[in-house]
Amino acid sequence: MTEQQGGIPLLPHDDSVIAVVRQSGRSDAKDFLEKLEKRDQARFLRYIQYLAAGRPLKSPEHFRRLSAAGAEPPVYELKSNKYRLYVVRTSRRWYITHGREKPKNNQVPREVAKALAIFWDRKGNSP
To answer: 37-85 pLDDT, tens per residue?
Structure first.
């Protein structure tokens, strides 16, 4: 995986789904994914492949929009049993910002705010 403007592509020969790299050079998403057990890594990789193929998951058990309708850019959540991966969508790309263990419902707005903060802090981003 080689870094490009704003992040690291997570699939070979495809730049539609990338792990955000912050201005500091750190990638919360990549760090999170690397620490997961192989089973959870495989599940999220399958979800990422669906996004790259232009087929977002339809099941609310695995994928849901967290931002209010009309909010731009929208923030989504990819779900496994224990973990969540936060993704910001632009017209061309899915930016994976960070992941964590499943939060309580009252913590979800904080994760949306964190995802947007990481997205806007990405390397190479011009305000």
So the answer is: 999 999 999 999 999 998 868 788 899 999 887 888 999 999 998 999 9
The amino acid sitting at 73 is P
Between 114 and 124, the more confident residue is: 114
CA distance 55 to 52: 7
pTM of the model: 0.90
Supply the DSSP string of 83-102, one letter for each residue.
EEEEEEE-SS-EEEEEEEEP
Could you tell me if 17 and 94 are in contact, meaning their C-beta atoms sit under 8 angstroms apart? yes
Q: How many CA atoms lie within 13 A of 55 on its CB side?
A: 5
What are the contacts of 116-121 at 24+ separation with CB within 8 A? 116/73, 116/75, 116/88, 118/20, 118/22, 118/28, 119/20, 119/73, 119/88, 119/95, 121/22, 121/23
Tally of CB atoms within 10 A around 84: 20
Residue with tokens 């500091």: 24
**How many residues make up the chain in this entry?**
127
Strands 63-65 and 75-79, how do they pair?
antiparallel
